């Protein structure tokens, strides 16, 4: 029929156009897939998880690490025990053994015997880091003063020092004064005996006196932490409780012989964790 050649020629042109158009579309799709692969590389066999509107992209969030508390910092510290320890235990009436049937039944003497190190024990009742003794704090027997007196004797050179106390420091109305005195005492010991390893045993007492020591305990603990010395927190650990105090109390202020033995036992448990 007339016009068939033109019609067929038009039909061939359309077919070719569709063919080339399809090829072009496939090329575009292939190029897009390759681009996705390049921007989202994965290992062999690793699946690609599609991100949809119902699957929001997670954004990383910073997790704050809480700063260690003063108590935690002091308790986490340890000491480097010398190869040949020479020990000085300095404190108040507890270290002197007051309340025990015999002074050598006091906690400090029990600890010294258990450890087996050459040891000097210096306990003076009514004294503390900041409180010098006497009803008016007028005896000038603060721990730092006594350390200086001990250091004047060159025949005894300790390389381990246990500072016990804080009960009498509860008479000080300023926690900052107690904290400062504690830190200065520790630093003084390090100056007097370079390399000495210092451990602080905080205040403790049978109930009800123990209930009055929280402020002093916190201040002594803060002073130990400021000086970087391990702190054994007998108060927070509850060495003396309302339940056990009747069996450990001597006079309402001091432990009896059993109370001193209890203090020594608890101290040695803590000591073992400090020297590991």
Q: Any idea what the shape is?
A: globular
Task: Indicate the mean pLDDT.
Answer: 80
Structural class: alpha/beta
Stretches where pLDDT falls below 50 for ≥5 residues? 1-74
Per CATH, which architecture?
3-Layer(aba) Sandwich
Amount of helix = 40-55%
Query: How many extended strands?
Result: 5
Radius of gyration: 38 Å
In short:
With 276 residues, this protein is an alpha/beta fold. It has ten helices and five strands. It has a single domain (70-274), classed as Rossmann fold (3-Layer(aba) Sandwich).
Q: Could you walk me through the main structural features you see in this protein, from its secondary elements to its overall organization?
A:
- The chain crosses the membrane at residues 20-39.
- This protein has helices at residues 4-39, 70-76, 93-96, 107-115, 143-151, 175-192, 214-226, 234-237, 245-248, 257-274; strands at 87-91, 119-123, 160-164, 197-201, 231-232.
- The chain is α/β, with parallel strands linked by helices.
- The protein has one domain (70-274): Rossmann fold.
- It has a five-stranded parallel β-sheet with strand order 2-1-3-4-5, sandwiched between helices.
- Helix 7 links the parallel strand 4 (197-201) and strand 5.
- Helix 2 (70-76) packs across helix 7 (214-226) and helix 6 (175-192) crosses helix 7.
- The radius of gyration is 38 Å and the shape is globular.
């Amino acid at each position: 029929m007339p016009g068939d050649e033109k019609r067929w020629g038009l039909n061939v042109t359309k077919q070719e156009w569709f063919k080339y158009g399809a090829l072009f579309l496939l090329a575009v799709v292939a190029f897009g897939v390759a681009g996705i692969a390049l921007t989202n590389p994965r290992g062999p066999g690793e699946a690609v998880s599609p991100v949809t509107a119902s699957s929001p992209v997670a954004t990383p969030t910073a997790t704050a690490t809480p700063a260690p508390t003063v108590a935690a910092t002091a308790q986490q510290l340890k000491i480097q025990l010398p190869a040949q320890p020479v020990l000085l235990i300095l404190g108040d009436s507890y270290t002197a053994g007051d309340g025990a049937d015999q002074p050598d039944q006091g906690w400090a003497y029990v600890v010294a015997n258990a450890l087996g190190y050459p040891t000097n024990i210096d306990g003076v009742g009514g004294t503390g880091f900041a409180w010098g003794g006497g009803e008016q704090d007028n005896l000038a027997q603060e721990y730092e003063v006594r350390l200086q007196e001990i250091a004047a004797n060159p025949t005894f050179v300790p390389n381990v020092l246990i500072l016990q106390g804080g009960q009498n420091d509860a008479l000080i109305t300023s926690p900052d004064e107690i904290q400062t005195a504690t830190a200065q005492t520790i630093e003084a010991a390090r100056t007097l005996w370079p390399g000495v390893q210092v451990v602080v045993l905080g205040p403790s007492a049978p109930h009800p006196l123990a209930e009055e020591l929280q402020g002093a305990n916190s201040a002594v603990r803060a002073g130990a932490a400021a000086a970087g010395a391990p702190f054994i927190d007998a108060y927070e650990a509850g060495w003396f409780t309302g339940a056990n105090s009747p069996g450990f109390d001597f006079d309402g202020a001091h432990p009896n012989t059993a109370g001193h033995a209890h203090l020594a036992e608890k101290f040695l448990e803590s000591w073992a964790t400090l020297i590991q």
